[in-house]
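Backbone-to-sequence.
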């Protein structure tokens, strides 16, 4: 998701695509922080 946001920002310049790229970059950061929190939580069982 973050890689797509970077590509959109690069090719979008200052257009509406660049605005969406920044939104996607923020969402990618949130998803990554959720994944890190789930991994760090000892109460969440490991999946096979």
């Amino acid at each position: 998701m973050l890689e797509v946001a970077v590509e959109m920002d690069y090719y979008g310049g200052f257009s509406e695509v660049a605005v969406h790229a920044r939104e996607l970059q923020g969402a990618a950061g949130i998803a990554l922080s959720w994944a890190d929190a789930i991994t760090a939580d000892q109460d969440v069982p490991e999946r096979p």
